[in-house]
Design goal:
The protein is of the alpha+beta class and about 120 residues long. The protein is built from two helices and five strands; from the N terminus they run H-E-E-E-H-E-E. It has one domain: Trna Endonuclease, Chain: A, domain 1, CATH 3.40.1350.
Amino acid sequence: MSRARKQLGQWGEDLAARYLQERGYVIRARNYRYSNVGEMDLVTERDGQLVFVEVRTRRGNAYGTPEESITSAKQARLAEVAQAYVQEHEWAGDWQIDVVAVELTPRGQLLRVTHLPNAIEGR
């Protein structure tokens, strides 16, 4: 992955974290990794519910929207990572997997931040 792409992704994650915190979410972990399966960008909690968050950031829409970039294989990996976190932390409450889509113009101007609750089936 190129340095510019990594920086864009990190910027999107930071923006998503602030966006969620302003709406009452507490960040429990960032970039939680599970074995060789994958990584969850944000692990948050709100109103007693664990909320896993995949952040997708896109500059321009030549390759589709941020939401469209989440393949079924990626969804399956995210669900596996979330389940691992739940087991590892012995979480007994409700949980879900959300998506935060960050879209920029080709020149880097912020177009939108869209929070999609319960966007990925985790169980």
